Amino acid sequence: MKKKEYISKELFEIIERYIKGDMTLKESQDINQLIELDDEFKNNVEEVKAFISKTEEKKEELNNLVNNVETQPAKKNNYNFIHLRFKQLALATAFIIGFGSIYFFSFPENEKLYTKYYTPAQSLPNQNKKSDDIEFFNAMDKYNRGEYNAAIKTLQKLALKNPANDTLNYFIGVAHLANKNTDSAIPFLERTVQSKKTFPLISEANYYLGLAYLKEGKTKLAKQFLNESNTENSKKLISKLSN
Question: What CA–CA distance (Å, rounded) separates 201 from 227?
Answer without folding.
Answer: 15
